[in-house]
User: What shape does this take?
Amino acid sequence: MGVDMQAVLANPRGFCAGVVRAIEIVEQALVLYGAPIYVLHQIVHNQRVIHDLEVRGVVFTEQMQSIPSGAVTVLSAHGVSDAVMEAAHRQGLEVIDATCPLVTKVHLQAQRYSKEGYEVVIIGHRGHVEVEGTYGRVRGAVQVVGSVEDVATLQVADPRRVAYVTQTTLSLDDTRAIVEAMKQRFPDVRGPELSDICYATQNRQNAVRTLAAKVDVILVVGARNSSNSARLREVGEMSGVSAYLIQDADEISPDWFVRSSRIGVTAGASTPEVLVRGVLDRLQELGVSQIEEIEGVSEAITFRLPAALLRRQRSA
Ligand code: SF4
Assistant: This one.
């Protein structure tokens, strides 16, 4: 262990407006409709959040068919395909959509490109729920690329009619390289005016870069299936420090700090602050004597609850 160990907290970190809204939607649904409330997929990718809601009567499932007809069902912040939405209505579910408005914006953009006759390329991670949802919102030709190499092997009907959108939680560096490769291969390619990478992802990645310049090692608190948390760890490593993704304080290994006196801490957009506090407590047990928080941009952004829920609130 280093001497005079210090913890430095990134700012901003943790919950974004989309996650705050999604959790608020489930909590409000519990109040307004009573338990059980069903949620298709994990509302946000964090086990602590899921567990806290489960004990209050929320049932999380990946199998929509298992939800009883008529049940109040919240769709997760990551968004769903048209097929899932239609199946939910066919099954008679009372749907409350917690899709983050910034994900919906990407859906609409992809649909616009498709209607204008463009083949849509989604830059993102194959198999991630957000990408699956966006993919399933496009009626025309659509493909997913996850790397510069994937761009080289893309097969398109007309190279002059290609457009791209991106997953909201990628790393800025990865997207830049893939967008560049798309432009090289398809000089007429269309894409969004501004990156689809959301403000929260961008701010948290910038904060990790600032943090990396001040510390020897970075701990990113986040679930293993949290895409934006995984990207924060990568950004830390790419900035030249060792970086570890941990779900909570129990996963900390003291060996990581043998030659470190300054330990950086941040958290993904779906990580509750209570887990960060737990990590700081553990670091203090391991010898950290001082905790400093870096100044960062303040995030005033909030999203309105879905109209259906607001109507129900008014009539309650
Ligand atoms: S990370 Fe961005 S896109 Fe995802 S829920 Fe949060 S604000 Fe929305």
Remarks:
- Residues 16-19, 77, 100, 102-103, 168-169, 198, 200-201, 228, 269 surround iron/sulfur cluster (CB under 6 Å).
